[in-house]
Amino acid sequence: MMISNGIEDEEKWLAEGIAGIQHNAFYLHRALDSNNLREALKYSALLLSELRTSRLSPHKYYELYMRAFDELRRLEMFFKDENRHGCSVVDLYELVQHAGNILPRLYLLCTVGSVYIKSKEAPAKDVLKDLVEMCRGVQHPVRGLFLRSYLAQISRDELPDIASEYEGEGDTFMDAVEFVLQNFAEMNKLWVRMQHQGPLREREKLDKERNELRDLVGKNLHVLSQIEGVDLEIYRDTVLPRVLEQVVNCKDELAQYYLMDCIIQVFPDEYHLQTLETLLGACPQLQSAVDIKTVLSRLMERLSNYAASSPEVLPEFLQVEAFTKLSNAIGKVIEAQVDMPIVGAITLYVSLLTFTLHVHPDRLDYVDQVLGACVKKLSGKAKLEDSRVTKQVVALLSAPLDKYNDIVTALTLSNYPRVMDHLDAATNKVMAMVIIQSIMKNNTCVSTSDKVEVLFELIKGLIKDIEGTSTDELDEEDFKEEQNSVARLMHMLYNDDPEEMLKIINTVWKHIMAGGPKRLPFTVPPLVFSALKLVRRLQVQDGDVAGEEVPATPKKIFQLLNQIIEALSVVPSPELALRLYLQCAEAANDCDLEPVAYEFFTQAFVLYEEEVADSKAQVTAIHLIIGTLQRMNVFGIENRDTLTHKATGYSAKLLKKPDQCRAVYACSHLFWVDDQDGTKDGERVLLCLKRSLRIANAAQQMVNVTRGSSGPVTLFVEILNKYLYFFEKGSPQITGAAIQGLIELIKTEMQSDSTTSNPASDAFFASTLRYIRFQKQKGGAMGEKYDPIKL
Amino acid sequence: MDWAGLLGWVSIGLGDLDLIKFLFFQFGAVDFRSDPNSLSPVSVFPIRGLDWIRLCIAMNYIIGAFKPACHISFTFFDGKSRKQVPSKKENGQTLMVPLFQSQENIVGKISIEPVSGKKVEHNGIKVELLGQIEMYFDKGNFYDFTSLVRELDVPGELYERKTYPFEFSTVEMPYETYNGVNVRLRYVLKVTINRGYAGSIVEDQDFVVRNYTPPPSINNSIKMEVGIEDCLHIEFEYNKSKYHLKDVIIGKIYFLLVRIKLKNMDLEIRRRESTGSGANTHVETETLAKFELMDGAPVRGESIPIRLFLSPYELTPTYQNINNKFSVKYYLNLVLVDEEDRRYFKQQEITMFRLAETS
């Protein structure tokens, strides 16, 4: 109620003020029209008296001021024309000072003063100096601010700047600088004093009102920056120290914050760079409530942009040791402002980091220094809970990655992981993902085990469970994505030197071992393949680097691989382990390491026997085993026999007849390797095929019994194709007659009433026959071979 | 502040500027205490206007109520070139009258013309030059401090217009014409046609006397520190102690300690006119100027400039014990007003003098 009344009252007062101005403006215009100086002065003074009110808020006062301002423009036009009022400007200058009330007097004096300078009858500097001195008479903050801002406004075009028409004859731009500085100092004092006006409970309102007026004060700095004569030297020796003196001495947080920001925004970057010490020196002297971090951040942001603007300015940065100065200043500010929240300090460091990344991209030690300072600030604190802080820390950590596009650089920063340690688990993971993504995006290769060590230390949030975090909340999808990322990351770890590569593998293994059963299925395969890749490389070089002392031998790697794959047993994930064993076996085969290969096969079979229980999985596994075994050439006859025997044995023991059949005919390949010196045992091939035929028959009958109709002839056609394969390969035991017989058999089966026709198998058979016909017609050796077969 | 520098360029030609006067201030008179070293709040007394009109009516006007028997007119020898200045008459009207200074010759002609050819018998005609002081409490009673007589004609009859030359050489006129609240000093040429019982015919011609003094050889500034203990300490400075009538007062007020919330500060020019002597001394104080120096509350260390042009105000020189009848003194009164409208002030006498106009 009170407040609304207050606002209404203010509206009323403003309306009264405006009415007063309009009323007197009417008579003023009449006086101006009739060139009556006396009346003009009388009514302009009355008009200006409306500005003496204390009842309006700055906002409303401004409205009133603007109206008076418009009228003063008219009056100034009148003053300029001596013919109209017949009074010399010198006399006018005295005349307006007869006014009894100070506020109208000074407004009029400023107005005439402007005309006086334009007339050049007195040196501009004298008039300006007099005006700025006389304005001291108004000590009321709001009225004084507006009066002085009027002075600043009307004098703007008349400052004796270099190359301005008001320069010369003892008037130098220094007088202009002096004038603006003085006006600025006085305005700032008035502005700061505003806070003591009125009771404490209205502090908030006052602050708001003060904020509305800040640009009046800041305008002076803007004017200063526009003065041509203010070069670096003047700025450094005069302008900046004087302005800072005001800023520091006013001991007012609002003013300090605004003015510091103003200085930074208004003056050129190169000036800031050359005066960093002075500017930064003021920071710790500011009130503790001042938001220095924003101020400094803006400064660094500007300097960063400046550095980015042109490479030619970079030497300047080095010359003035910008980084050291900034870094020291930030340290001092943080030290001085004990109450500064941690987020503030981190924000400062982020800015400093951004700055140094822009300006000194080559100076990693700077980056590390910043991170180190951060660690120091964070140390002794618990994990960061505040989301704003973590956000800043992530920004801090991401900055070097973005800049260098190269994680390797970041890995050399010793403080990097220490900063990460302060993040909570979730953020840590996010950060780890950022790191991995950065590596992937830039195809960065991490090439030493030390770096790998550091890297895995960094992303340990993904590698293992961190104490104190519950795993229940984990989203399955996210988890998979994370682990896939880790898996992809492993492929980026590479070194041409096998020894180092082995170290890398060892390091990675050490880390992922701790990952637990949930992670191993994701992390083991890439590691295994990475190791196998190394094996392959060694196998190529094997000849050159012989000797016992070589640490990275395939043997050793295989031992390691064995361990790694064994680890999967805790998961358990037998199918995966089995596949990996087979991969290893194959690699061992290529390295000519029979016992190793045999061992891997053994492991695979053991797994098959003990762990793979599911029939489908068994089918897949047995086919994998057969396929791998088929390619092995390292084994001696005995070993080979053992293994093939096992394989065929397991094939025949599969649960479903069709599966048995297929596995068995696949086994036939174990005895016929189509290489120069591969096994070529036609006898046993035939045995296998015959056995599979038997099984196929049995399968057919079983279907007949259970369903009353025969199954499709697919299995027979498949066996026929095997026959054709070995026939073509020249196995003596596979004869045209046998093929002929098989074809007949199939045809009979197909024509049998009880057989359900299956388009797929029919087509399969038809195309097989077509193939035979094609081979017959082709002629040549193969055609002759096929000739006896009659269709 | 560089006083000399400022003075250098504000001393500007005055010309006819004093005709253009716009006085923004309101008049207000306040009582003062004579304790010279302290500022103290004091209540405001009722205001008495400057334009108080006196009810005194002179004898010759009563006579003048009858139809005059003849017209009497004055012409000065250098009437066309002599400067005329406004002079306020008792009835409030302002007339332009000639201006003289001490030691000048007052030369001219007086012509007397009987109305419509009637003859005027007389016992002789004379012209007097009178310097008179009239006190408020003794209305109509003139004290002549200067009285010179020239006989114009022996007893006889006037039939027609007749012109008499007259001359008063190097007349000693030490005092200036003055129109105060309680006292008036005037110079008058008085023609008397003595007619015995029929009643004499008298005609007056006022003129104004102003005397000029050279600038004083010693003119110190006024500088003083005053205050209320632990409350308000100020130091003020006026550049001179002696000012001429068109002078400018330059100065500053420096705030050493401010613990009260000030609202504004004015500089007043006060005229103190004292009449009579001993137990009959009557003192009248008027505020001639009220000039706002400061708006708002200053803080410690602020220095507020003063620049007050004296030309717009109707000042006279300081008069010291004029013929043992009266004195006129001038004071600068610095008044500080706080937010509760309490007034704190400090009064300083200044000496006013009239500088010969250069134009």
UniProtKB/TrEMBL annotation, chain A:
Location within or outside the cell: Cytoplasm; Endosome membrane; Golgi apparatus, trans-Golgi network membrane; Prevacuolar compartment membrane
Membrane-topology annotation of the record: Peripheral membrane protein
InterPro entries tied to this protein: ARM-type_fold (IPR016024), Vps35 (IPR005378), Vps35_C (IPR042491)
Taxonomy, superkingdom: Eukaryota
Alphabetical UniProt keywords: Cytoplasm, Endosome, Golgi apparatus, Membrane, Protein transport, Transport
Biological processes per GO annotation: protein transport
Alphabetized SUPFAM superfamilies for the sequence: ARM repeat (SSF48371)
Pfam families per UniProt: Vps35
GO cellular component labels: endosome membrane; Golgi apparatus
Family: Belongs to the VPS35 family.
Role this protein plays: Plays a role in vesicular protein sorting.
Protein name, UniProt field: Vacuolar protein sorting-associated protein 35
Organism name: Forsythia ovata
UniProtKB/TrEMBL annotation, chain B:
CC per GO annotation: endosome membrane; Golgi apparatus
Spans traversing the lipid bilayer: none
UniProt protein name: Vacuolar protein sorting-associated protein 26A
Predominant location: cytoplasm
Originating organism: Forsythia ovata
Subunit structure: Component of the retromer complex which consists of VPS29 (MAG1), VPS26 (VPS26A or VPS26B), VPS35 (VPS35A or VPS35B or VPS35C), VPS5/17 (SNX1 or SNX2A or SNX2B). Component of a retromer subcomplex consisting of VPS29 (MAG1), VPS26 (VPS26A or VPS26B), VPS35 (VPS35A or VPS35B or VPS35C).
Keyword field: Cytoplasm, Golgi apparatus, Membrane, Protein transport, Transport
Pfam families (UniProt xref): Vps26
The keyword Nucleotide-binding appears for this protein: no
Similarity field: Belongs to the VPS26 family.
Topology versus the membrane: Peripheral membrane protein
Role of this protein: Plays a role in vesicular protein sorting. Component of the membrane-associated retromer complex which is essential in endosome-to-Golgi retrograde transport. The VPS29-VPS26-VPS35 subcomplex may be involved in recycling of specific cargos from endosome to the plasma membrane.
Database matches in InterPro entries: Arrestin-like_C, Ig_E-set, Vps26-related
GO biological process: protein transport
Cytoplasm as UniProt keyword: yes
